[in-house]
Amino acid sequence: MFKAKGIAKQKIEGDYRAQYVILRDYSEELMKSNPGTTVTIDVEPEANPSSPTRHFRRIYICLGGLKAGFKLYGRPLLGLDGAFMKGPFPGQVLTSVGLDSNNGIYPVAFALVEAETKNSWVWFLNCLGHDLDLQRDSYFTFITDRQKGFIPAIQQVFPYAEHRFCLRHVHENMKPRWKGELYKNLLWKCASSTTVAYFEQAMKEVLATDEGLYQWLREIPHVHWTRAYFSGRAISNVLLNNLCEVFNRQLVEGRDKPVITCLEYIREYLMRRNVVVHILISKSEGHLTPTATEIFDKIKEKAADMSVQWNAVDKYQVKGSSLEQCVVNMADKTCSCRRWELTGMPCKHAVAVIWDMAAHGIEVDVPEKWVSQVYWLQTWKQVYAHTMDPINGRNMWLPSACPTTLVPPKHHKQVGRPRKKRKKSAEELTEQASKQGKLYRIGQTVKCTKCGRKGHNQRSCKGTADGCQSNV
User: Fold this and answer.
1) Whose CA is closest to 265, among 113, 416, 93, 65?
2) Alpha-carbon radius of gyration of the chain
3) CA 415 from chain center: how many Å?
4) I need a labelling partner for 462 at 20 to 30 A (CA). Which of 21, 179, 268, 442 fits?
5) In whole angstroms, what is the distance from residue 82 CA to residue 101 CA?
């Protein structure tokens, strides 16, 4: 039964080893059918240059339509992440995902590599920088987890880039010592502060609660995890790398398939997603995208409670409830609360100023016109006008002119059944169990039901209740 299932699966999904031989054929067909597409294959160094074979190591793909669309909407932000492969040849799927005009995910490039290391990330970032015309001194923004390979790789390839840490992973690193909603809320309050003054106030609350946590947070450079120190270049104030998490979740079923089948699974998902967005665009109306409209409507509701005072030039003093008072500079399109600068969308203080200007006869147009073009419906349409074209079947691929043949990557098969599920931390298991209404046994000592002593169970018990030799 097991062999029959393996034979059937091989006929449907393809042979794991044989697909490496035709990987170059697939790459050339992909580039031919999708102009502008980049496919880069990296192989292991070969001691014998005259050898007719090369061991596969990595492949990078950036589809032409995605590349053109990303360059168009002008949001220099990418999330980076890796997810493990589950087939007989282990490796990692590296992904780079941006935010589109509707604040939805916009996958840009992906790669299959041997492992998630500094070297593989440097190679991936170099390929990505070449495709997106990023120079070494580019002021780009990346958001990642705190995996050791990310930090030195980004510093090496893009030393001037803004590097944000996903706050969820900062919290995961924090939880072994500081658990509970209290510490989580303190962390989020610090990270969500948009000004240095608010950030320092939040940090004082942390210090008053736990000095150890305060010192631990101080050791993490502020530019990596709090909005108070973010620049406004990314036109986004995101704190979580949900971009890649959402994308990787869609690829779970494809990560245990042969190499070409896996790559096709990703490409076909991208095609389906493009169709879904096209349908949503056709139903959308107004100046902004649907999500941007919803966010801006809430901002305008809050702006109704603001009072405005003009300085006769370009600056306005805006007061709200309690001690809230900010300065809005309409010439620079900034507010001292920094929300306009961070998101590209006028904050409630700026909206109140726009209404005040209109009330005094100044031509300012509707508030939506002051929102960054990133969120415009027209921009969204132009980005997704770049589509991905289908490709022909394997029987129509032309053989590659490369003189060497690709063979599977070097791999030492481990003893036992390969793992298919990610190993979860103790905190994740506890949270999962609590959501399901179960009690999880962590830190509890097992008790023998036969002799009543702790440290062993009845299966390993070596005696009775009277003369048991406990393993404590």
Assistant:
1) 93
2) 27
3) 33
4) 442
5) 24
Torsional class of 344: left (φ above 0), alpha (ψ -120 to 50), beta (otherwise): left
In 3D space, the residue among 112, 18, 22, 14 whose CA is nearest the CA of residue 402 turns out to be 22
CA torsion angle 317 348 188 222 (round to 10): -50
Query: 166: closest CA among 104, 92, 88, 245?
Result: 245
Identify whether the C-beta of residue 355 lies closer than 8 Å to the C-beta of residue 362: no
Phi and psi angles of residue 394, each rounded to the nearest 5 degrees, phi first: -60, -30
Euclidean distance between CA atoms 468 and 472, whole angstroms: 11
* 182-225 residue pLDDT tens: 999 999 999 999 999 999 999 999 999 999 999 999 999 999 99
User: What pTM, to 2 d.p., does this model score?
Assistant: 0.85
Which residue, among 259, 247, 254, has the nearest Cα to 99 in the 3D structure? 247
Q: What is the pLDDT of residues 232-282, one digit of tens each?
A: 899 999 999 999 999 999 999 888 899 999 999 999 999 999 999 999 999
